Amino acid sequence: MKLLIMGAPGAGKGTQATALAERYGVPAISTGDIFRYNIKNQTPLGVKVKAIIDAGEYVPDDVTEEIVASRLAEPDCEQGFLLDGFPRTMHQVHFLDRYLAERSAPLDAVVSLMVQPEALVQRLLARAEIEGRADDNEDTIRRRMEVYAGQTAPLLFHYENKGLLVDVDGTGTVDEVRQRMFDLVDAHVKA
Ligand code: ADP
After folding, report:
1. What would the mean pLDDT of 100-125 be, rounded to a whole number?
2. Residue 56 Cα to ligand 1 middle (Å)
3. Which of 41, 58, 84, 117 has its CA 20 to 30 A from that of 13?
4. Region NMP: what ranges (predicted)?
């Protein structure tokens, strides 16, 4: 199974990505988590991307694509993977299309988690209290929403045109959303 999960900041991508990856027995690969790990450990990559991420902007495509390519080359991705937070730009979409075409390894589904914008900000501010992520403050949240709406939301059309999109309503409890997502993805991959 080769899956993507997309959604605005605060849509619950990370949480549902973990559940979905477990269900299909594939690794969940979160570019955001990879960047945060590198920032925490002050690696050269972390030092390079910290200010960008703290400002709510996207890390440059070449940097992000190289990280994803090397992660996908690891043995645990041979049977499939779930990408969480990649691709986020049209450049990254084309990069991934090319990468998978060269390996004759097409995607099975692209999950889109949809939540109303007003609910997103509330969720992120609540998460800020719990997790203390440096990019979960009001200004950065607003910027991340704008960047998502401008650069990432339009990518859904690309996958819709390919017949890969699975739209999931992300409102409700974590358990409700998970069950809804499982049902829709199961139906999509069996069809
Ligand atoms: P969220 O979806 O809540 O914004 P993520 O953990 O997915 O959280 O991403 C956090 C930040 O990491 C993003 O705001 C961005 O700065 C950076 N990032 C993650 N994935 C990518 C990507 N594919 N391209 C560019 N930047 C990325």
Report:
1. 93
2. 8
3. 41
4. 30-59
